[in-house]
Amino acid sequence: MTQLYIECPCTSFPRSFARDYKETYLYPPPSTIYGFLLSLVGEEDLNTHLGVELALGIIGDDPPISRIVRKQRHHKFAIGQEAKKRIAKYGEGIYPTSNFSKPNHQELLTSLRIVVQVNSNEESASIKLTERISIALSTPSQITRFGGLSLGESNGLVNGVRSYRESDGVIRWLVKDRRGLIGLPIWINRTTGQGTFQRFSFGDFCQDCWVKIQLPISELNTKSINSKKSQ
């Protein structure tokens, strides 16, 4: 079991329903933390460490929210004939700035300090995520990764990652609570944009702090059907 301290000076976790006004979740979603850990160890396959359990805690008060104006691109995801027409007109991967860029407001979180506890007991991977995290922290030369280490959007670079120390501060743990006022995504489908959500409240560390990262039932059924067709 691994307990990490992560400090990020400035980042954002855009809400799933945010459009023109990029509102942020106040706390990092478990789905984002899972992606961050995969990036830390240089893993590109989201399915490699399914079954891992994460517990998330916040140190100090809630991070302050800043509101800025920035230029953002808006890409329309097209499929079928519509996609072919768009590619024929603009070229694949080419989007005219005048048509797809405009100023928008965005919320940012500053001075975010969190603690993440990782439990790999339920993983099926031969080399557990906790083991790979230990290697990444102790001998980073043994892992292969690219780009900056970000929490949330790519511009949200972290100051550092290390083991948690008691001197870092008291932890406020997120605890699963059906009536909790904190709703965060556990898993997001990159193709459809749909996801699985969980509600939380703050409390002491307990068994309900653990969140298992796993595929939603709908995606499991789709994979099962595709597997049978291939046979």
Number of strands: 9
The gyration radius over C-alpha positions equals: 19 Å
Pick out the low-confidence regions.
none
Largest sheet: 9 strands, antiparallel
- The termini sit apart by 39 Å
Percent strand:
25-35%
Question: Which structural class best describes the helix and strand composition?
Answer: alpha+beta
Mean pLDDT: 85
Shape: globular
Give the number of domains: 1
* Total of helices: 5
What do we call the CATH topology?
Alpha-Beta Plaits
CATH architecture: 2-Layer Sandwich
Instruction: Give, in order, the helices and strands.
Output: EHEEHHEHEEEEEH
Q: How helical, in percent, are the residues? A: 10-25%
* CATH class term: Alpha Beta
Overview of the structural elements:
This protein is of the alpha+beta class. The protein has a single domain, classed as Alpha-Beta Plaits (2-Layer Sandwich), CATH 3.30.70. Strands 1, 2, 3, 4, 5, 6, 7, 8 and 9 form a nine-stranded antiparallel beta sheet that branches. It is globular and about 55 Å long. The relative contact order is 0.25.
